[in-house]
Amino acid sequence: MTTTIASPATTKPPTPTTTTHTLRSPSTYIHLTLLLPPAPLAAPTDTPTFLTHLQSALSTFLGLHGAAIPIDVLRTSGNDIWIRVPRQDGSAVVAACGGYVGGGNGEGVGWRVRGWGGWLGGLVGRGEGVFEG
């Protein structure tokens, strides 16, 4: 009687997997409402109008440093705007917008800070998405 001994199967050692991570600079997300004086025929608020008032608030409160803060507009809806700024500038933007009253010819234009944080989903709430509707 002949017995054969099974040799262990030769298997390749697992190849190491390469994992990559993209480092993004941390951001602060801010939801603002532009407060405009009541007008019978108010023009619709558009992105350039929002940015003009944001730059005015930032340069008034922070000078040249405020004017240099990069702002990403994520969405506008009516008088609401969602923006993204670098995390280190987030509290300065909130302070500048929250205390801003501007406009000429006796008009009072201001900002109301609706919310801010490091996570966009926390600002939206109520199950709606910032990019919906």
Structural summary, described in words:
The chain is an alpha+beta fold and 133 residues long. Helices cover 27% and strands 25% of the residues. The protein contains 4 helices and 5 strands; from the N terminus they run βααββαββα. The protein has helices spanning 47-62, 64-67, 87-98, 121-124; strands at residues 27-35, 72-77, 80-86, 101-102, 109-117. The longest helix is centred in the middle third of the chain and has 16 residues, at 47-62. It is elongated. The model has no long low-confidence stretch (mean pLDDT 82). One of its GO terms (cellular component) is nucleolar ribonuclease P complex. Residues 28-100 form the Ribonucleases P/MRP subunit Pop8-like domain.
Class from secondary-structure proportions? alpha+beta
How many beta-strand runs?
5
Amino-to-carboxy terminus distance = 81 Å
Low-confidence stretches: none
- Main-sheet strand order equals 2-3-1-5-4
Percent in helix: 25-40%
Query: How large, in whole angstroms, is the Cα Rg?
Result: 26 Å
- Tell me the overall shape: elongated
Strand content: 15-25%
The major β-sheet equals: 5 strands, antiparallel
Mean of all residue-level pLDDT scores: 82
- The number of distinct helices, counting runs of at least 4 residues, comes to 4
